[in-house]
Structures are given as C-alpha cells and as structure tokens.
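hey so i finally got around to running both of the ones u sent me last week. sorry it took forever, my laptop kept dying halfway thru and i had to restart like 3 times lol. anyway pasting them below in the order u listed, first the sequence line then the structure token line for each. didnt double check formatting much so if smth looks off just lmk and ill redo it

first one:
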Amino acid sequence: MSSPGEERTTAAVRPYVITRGRAGSSRDALPLETLVMASGSALPPHMQPEYRRIADHCQGLLSVAEVAAHLGQPPAVVQVLLADLIDWGHIVARPPIRVVKRKRADLDLLRKVLDGLESKL
C-alpha cells in the first residue's frame, strides 16, 4: 500500500498497457472526425475489455473523438484500438469528407453560364 503522501502512478501507465505499448497502428492515424460504427460481427470471447466497450458504444455512428470521450481515454489510445478493430473487421470507418478549395476557373465558368442564362431572359 502507498503511504498518505505518495501519489499513485497507475493512471499514467494504463493507456500504455491498453495499447500494449503501441503509439500507432498499421494504418494512418484516424482523424478525430472520422465516423465509426460496429460492423455487427461478434467479438471473440478473449478480446480485451476496452475493445468490447468500443464495440458497445459504436452501435450507431460516432466520431473517434466521441468514442474517446465515452471511454474516458486519450484520443491517441482510442485511435490505436479502433484501428485494430477496423483491421479485424469489427468496426467500419467512414473517413471525413475533404473540402476541396474552389478554383478560379470554376467561378469564371459559373459566371459565364449565369451571364448566358440572363441574356436569354
């Protein structure tokens, strides 16, 4: 047991233990706004509890950030665990939609179309 003045350090070690010391995964890091959902496949009985909690929370679409908040774990830890579950087919991910910057040529073309339509009226 620790003495009254000693501080416990297990909370700092726990995320490291959960990911088995991994800071990354086999895939690119999942952006926090990536939407994830359970695939419906049954998890093996030997799966660690954190994986099960993720699958339970992901019955509907949730962002990676929301999953981290529900679990009370750092987003980096949840990203590693989610990547594992995606690789194993237990979670499906929908990457965020990338916003494409408008090109000047697109605006010019739209202006010309508008001018053409106005001249017909």
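and the second one:
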Amino acid sequence: MEEVKSIISQRLRRAPAGKIVTPKEFLSFGSRTAVDKTFSRLAAAGKIIRVARGMYVAPQESEFGTYPPSAEKVVSSYGKITGERIVPSGARAANNLGLTTQVPVEELFLTTGKARTLMLGRRKVFLKHAPSWQTAMPNSKAGEAIRAIAHMGPQRAASFAKAVRSKLTTREWEQVSKMKPSVPAWMVNAINEAELAN
C-alpha cells in the first residue's frame, strides 16, 4: 500500500497543473481496492483533490500554502479524457471580448457532453450541456462572439451583435457569418443586422 501511495504521490507531483488523474491509471501497481483506498486517503488528507467520481488533481503550492488549480486547466483536462468539447460560458466570452466589465461569479462552462458539477475544493465548476453551435470554434474570438451573442438572448442579440462586430477583425467576423446555417433564426437576424449596420 505504501508503494502504491508513493507512486501515486510522485505522479501527481510531476503532473502539469490541473491534469486529472484516475485510479485506473495505476492498476498495474496494485489491486483496484488498494489503489482506490490510497486515492481516498490522499484526498481525505488534502494531498489531492477529488474533482469528480474517479477523477483527481494535485493542489498547487505556494509560499502561502496549497490551493486548487485553475478551473480552465481542470476543465481542459476533463475534456481530453471524456472527448467532450468544452468552452467558457457566453457571459465569460462577453467579458473576454471587453463587451462587459462584469466578471461572472459562477464558474460555468458549456459542454457537448452531459451537465455535471466538478469540485475544486469548496469551489463548484458547472458544466452545462449546450448545442454544438454554441461550443463551435473553441479558443477563437469568432467562437466567443457566437457565445456572447447567444448569451444576450433574442431581445438584445441584434444590438449586441453590432458591438461584437466592432471587436473583431474582418476575417474573424467572416467566421461568425459562416455559422449562420447552424444557429437559430434569431441569431441569424442579429448577425444580418450587424452586417447591414456596417
């Protein structure tokens, strides 16, 4: 058991920040029961953080103590494990584009997978299922633009789309425009109005 504990602890210490590890990665070093018990004991001792069932991350260390890794890094690792496409929420996208100064309090991400809650210590990270068009073009301003406009809803989408367009390059807006066959009709109208206003 101590050998298994040492191997798990070393692997976690060397893992990149926010990388999720699972007990099944260590089954070659001990029985399932021994590995599961070791993970449970390390989590109870605060040496690792249980993110979700069967998923753990190492806490980060500083001169002031330990703290959970960033939600973005953990969610990115989760997406690689599950094969889901996960992106920041529309509220976060609007903030990233400089369209609002309000920083979302809730750590919310949109996913192509099932809705679930991940835990980072006492912090909750929410994954909300969204249609594929809302998770399109991850890590791009065009993708953020789509999510930001969608976040505003049908009533405010048109005026917001005009503000969004002013933040993008011509090429980035072209990518937004190419999404029209995939998005709802009210989003199409908002994008069209933004183009006519230019």
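quick thing i noticed on the 2nd:
The beta strands are 49-52, 55-57, 60-62, 65-67, 86-88, 107-111, 116-120, 123-129.
anyway thats it, ttyl
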